[in-house]
Here is the input.
Amino acid sequence: MMNYLKMAYRNLGRNRRRSILSAFALSIGLALVLFIAAFFKGEMRSSMESTLRLDSGHIQIRAADYDPDKLSVAWEYLIENPEQVATQVETLPQVQVATPRLIASGIVAVGDESSGVQIMGVDPASSANDPYRQGLVSGDFLAADDREGILIGVPLAENLNLKVGDQLNLLVNTSNGNVDEQLFTVRGIFTTGVSTYDKGIVLLPLAKAQAFSGAENRASYIFVLLKDRAQTDAVAAALQSPDYQVKTWQELNEILVLMEDFSNAYLLILNLIVMGVTATVIVNTLVMAVFERTREIGILTAIGMKGRQIIGLFLAEASLLALGGLAFGLLLGWGVSAYFGKVGIYFGDLGISGFYLGDRIYSYLTLEDAINLTIASLIITLLASLYPARLASRMEPVEALHGGD
Amino acid sequence: MEVAKLTDVTRIYKIGEVETRALNGITMTIASGEFTSLVGPSGSGKTTLLQLIGCLDQPTSGQVVINGKETTNLSRNQRADLRKGTIGFVFQFFALIPTLTAYENVEMPLLLNGKNVTDRKKRVMDLLAAVDMTSHAHHRPDQLSGGQQQRVAVARALAPKPTMILADEPTANLDTENGEQVMGLMQTLNKDTGTTFVFATHDPRVIKYARRVVTLQDGLIVDDKKNK
Here is the structure.
């Protein structure tokens, strides 16, 4: 084995530039698949985290008849005494925070400009609203007893040319099916980092939202965040009650979960294409080596080297090329992924509704992906190298010996 | 004792629709310890005959028996096994592996024969000493002259202690002095070790070393005589 590796190493040194270029092609290929994997993982992770943090939470407790598509605040769709329910939920040790939220549909109008929005009534004291509180770019967060204040996102403020202290007219569909309107003052402007989300939502204190929409002491759901997402099913089971619907984040985000599966399948195809192309470079190098060394193969065969030993010799060459190339590719892929994991890649608002993707995507390379993709690249390269290796092993000694003539 | 016995051996090469009859019913035997030269003009079939004796090729018809073993129906790997322990080769071109040193080139057949490191080292150093190449043991082929390379090739051919060494135009690319040296070396080794040598040549300087001269023409043996 050592002798094969020694010969393989020296053979690679015969055409150093070609060997280095081939190994480098493998490096680039692996770095590329690692970065693509890290990018997709980062994208899905960002989207899932944004969705859980801003929209769905880990669990939602809703009234038995609640229909999220209607955005209706009709009483039959709402949960009564929501603060009491939330307090009870918070007693579970796995629960980090539980808070009532009231969701209503509305329209923001400023002068001739208007924009359809989702009005979210929140308990300003709850830590579940930290993404908005910490994302304030100007102004202050809402106070629980504020009756005229409203919080809006940066894109909405830009679209309607609003700043802190400006007034806007908000129309809401009320519980009894009418439309009400009121002037609100912009108390603060926030960004959650997800423009798609920020452009379509306004925040009111829960009490004001309840009064304004006629929901009274009711909320659309209890938004629950857990200390550990893995506890979701256990907590959901503990919360089951005939009076409520208990929805887990998987049920609330079926499309996102499906998209993650789809993106994994898509990624697999993409990876196979990139690895296939790079393996072709290695095959090409080895095929050239086989034809250049035809006479040597003849000599080795003449002195008694068997077909499988010739295969071993060329596979040793492929292994060295692959190990060198992949080691550098791993380093390169990890480096690039780590860099963009830190600074992110700015995409802005991609305008994909219902898909809360951050404006900046941070690549995220997992150890599992790094190991799996490196091993897969090695296996594909070695499998591809079998072709030139077998080509060499099947040469007739007489023909091979005259190959250099 | 016969190391090679050929019976009515024919070898026809087919290139496209054209058939070339390289050997046309050769029957001959080579006894152990012979120092035999196959001579004849280009295209007479010397190299083809050598390749068939060396199990590098298979006859179109006829029988080739090496060390009492019928080789005609052997697989590629079985032929490789037979060559590995029985037959050594010295080629016209200096057929050393360019990435290996002189030492490693001589060691290669021993590795293929599964010899341990101690046995290998002793055998290689003995052989390099026998061909007067000890001082160049760690030189690569491109650091050796043609004559030196051919001496290393002879040492390599002898390494697995074969019963027969086949040499195809071993002096063709050497000057007179180096050619004489290599032939003298092969003659000495033949006498000292009893190894059978068969070489194809049309170089009269080489033929004088042979004790038996087999002359081929148009794929047939036209003369087979002892050399005085």
About this structure: Chain A touches chain B through 23 residues (CB under 8 Å). Chain A has two domains: 2-51+256-401, 65-241. Chain A has a mean pLDDT of 89.
